[in-house]
Amino acid sequence: MKAIYLDCFSGISGNMMIGALLDAGLPIEHLQTELAKLDISGYKLINKDIVKKGIRARYFNVEFRQWFQPSRNFGDIQKIIKKSSLATSIKEQAEAIFARLAEAEAKVHGTSVDKVHFHEVGAIDSIIDVVGTVIGLEYLGIKHVFASALHVGSGYVKCDHGLMPVPAPATAELLQGIPFYSDKIKGELVTPTGAALVASLVQEFGTLPVYMKTERVAYGAGSMDLDIPNVLRVYVGTVQMLAQGQKAKLVETNIDDLNPQLYGYVMERLFAVGAYDVYLTPVNMKKNRPGTKLTVITAADKLNEIIRIILTETSTLGVRVFECDSFHVAREIVKVDTPWGEVRVKIGKMDEQIINVAPEYEDCRMIAEKHNIPLKAIHAYVLGRCKMFTDELL
In sequence order, what DSSP letters do the residues of 73-103 get, joined into one string? Predict the structure, then answer.
């Protein structure tokens, strides 16, 4: 799978992102042709190599032929994108990025999304930065985006409403849930547009993945001259994604005084609210008492509900919570016809290759009970009908 890693040691902005994509192989002619599909005019694209503290980087920017830039709202930008002849995938992604910007601005200014008037981010250069980034990612075939923690800078930045602390309010809103830090470097290193791109496009944050094979290192230059190289470093390569990963929570508690008959009910309640898995482990507790460790794996947004059920439905007085990575292969459900009715079959895929085929137990059980046929015979029959899938396993 084609992927990029954004090394944001000097922050990120829209023009730095496009500069890096141009340096990574996006032809400027392709970018110009695609951007011409937008109903905007009066600009010129700057594309040149420059040196920042000894590092050669591609500098991209937008030069205006007219000094006045109209203030646009989210609806105006939507119309510009929707009316274009760009590919649907590009239009949808660009609109989603601007929607995220609009939501952040609306929250900061205490208004609704449809009433937000973009100033800096509604100008032509920001429209080009957002749409151009999506164009570049699609041209390069990028399917996964990683990023480091973001260096946001420090001090104050001058914007339409006056001096604002770094990160600017809208940027701070967009960076919720994203790792960032401030160092001694003065200035705004992460712009609202840059923050929106990261918040919308990046799937994973951290160090450069050990399973990423780098094929090229590209640099996009920022406009300011700093004490550090003002560049966005982008690693371009491939990753072998074994499974779809996401952050999960592992909840545990040890219990030695609960009626064993209640555990089944507790497990049903936990699964009903969306727990990934629930299991019981026999343990020896203090004073050598036999006990049971209840373990639940759940999505982070289900944590409070999971804890509430455990505390109210069991005799425990507390739980332990750990963060963990949860990986799942891509799954697809297909229906297989049998002489006794349909049976659902789960197909597990990794990198588009089938690695597991499993008839749905409940469907097989219902047929076995209804027609008085051994369950193992139903299971074997369904697997036989799945030959087109099982052959791919061999």
Answer: EHHHHHHHHHTS-S-HHHHHHHHHHHHHHHH
